[in-house]
Predict the 3D structure of the following.
Amino acid sequence: MRTINFNFFQLGLLLFLTVNMGACGNFNNLEEPSKKLLISNNQNTQSTTDTPPLLPETLSNDGKEYKGLTTVTFVLKTPENTPTNASIYLSGTFDEWSGGGHDKYKFIKTATNLYELSIEEDAGSALQFKVTRGSWDSGEVDERGRRIGNRVVLVRDKALNIKLVVNKWNDQSTEIENIDAGYWHTSIPDYQHNLTRPIIKLNGTQTVIISSFDDYQEQGATALNFEGVDISPRIKVNGLPEQITAGDHIITYNVTDSKGQKAVPVSRLLRVLDKEPVSYSLRPVGATSSHLGYIEQLPSNYGKDPKQLYPLFIYHHGAMGEATSMNLTRQTSLFELSNWWGGGPARIAMRGHWNTDSPLLVLSPQRSYFATDIERIDAFVDYAIKNYQVDPKRIYMGGFSAGGFVSWEYAINYPNKVAAIIPMAGGVLPRIAGDICNAREVTVWAFHSTVDKSVDVAEAKDAIKTYNNCQPREKGKLTLFDNIGHPSHQQVLELEGMFNYSDAGDPFDENIYTWMMKQKK
């Protein structure tokens, strides 16, 4: 099998998890020399000044592959109130999150409140899981009775011994209200200016780059009410770091005049340099003026030239990545999203493989609900344009599963604002299928598995067929995979699919990021 070689340079972040390891899927490699030669030739002849953030060989582990099975032993300690006759299981990606019940993943009791389980898993695979007593209603929760994030173990070719501790069981604890509960109800900001609203203008540049926080001098902003009167003393500043912290910080300026009229917030990016560029930042709700929390990935040279505009890729996660589905705190929710198997580009960055020399700017918003109001997505696009150095002619959108449906819906409703979309394991919602020709000016490259049991491949085929019947400016493409189920997005974003796409669809013969950055309105 083809596997991925991770760089765990950010283990400190993983303290949110009981098992401090990252995860990523592993893929089968179809040994087809013709495809490898085609890809190699294609990469050597690309004529573009835009460096892609990832190359096909980056995650190929230098040709080394993990083979065979590895024994993973879990030693578990449970709460004192665990029933003496309880049946305890692991449940996760390996049993399709069934909640427990499979004998293979059932623990053996070794002493009071102590259990052990040994399993053999493919070397190179990644396990995401939680502990249950046979169902999610009796699954593990944290010490306050709240849901926890997925535990993660990366399996290699050496035996592993993992210690687990369950703090409480869901059905035996009184859940304490999440202190951040309801943060996803943030209203959509109004970016439309009218003559009655005050105006804020930054003093100085929108991005400030310093080597030490000691070098920073707050330049502030100027605010005028609708009569032109200076109301700068009323400005409130949020996000200014209180201590020296390397990384990217967003400072937001807000003002409300004496009549209660609020200005459109403005922000400044403060980049405090470290030895290595920051590969990604978490932007929870409330930390910026955005109504959605999101994960930010900036080019290393971002902000050095205030006039330079950057191509923007907005990536949408799949179902179960929504804020309401996770029901975690704001920061933890975003962290779990970046570490989740549906996390997309942020997960690549977390593992140290994202090349920040690429000009591609990536924002991965966390949607609030499964059924997303597309106006909320458009408001996020407006937020990005207003607060980042975005090239409006090079805005791209893509997503996995539900995120693929969102990408199609956005292109149909706002075709003048997006240059290309990359729907992965998604399709077009029936209620808007009749309007797909609205997107004829948007370039489309879709990806799907022929054995997807969650979203049938017929939905992707129908979408591309209907789209191409609209005589688009460029024929839509659909690349297929035969050797993986629903999570085909991993094959796309991590470029592993360039080695094993199906001959039944369009060839995956170009770096998706290179292709993306070529598209313009």
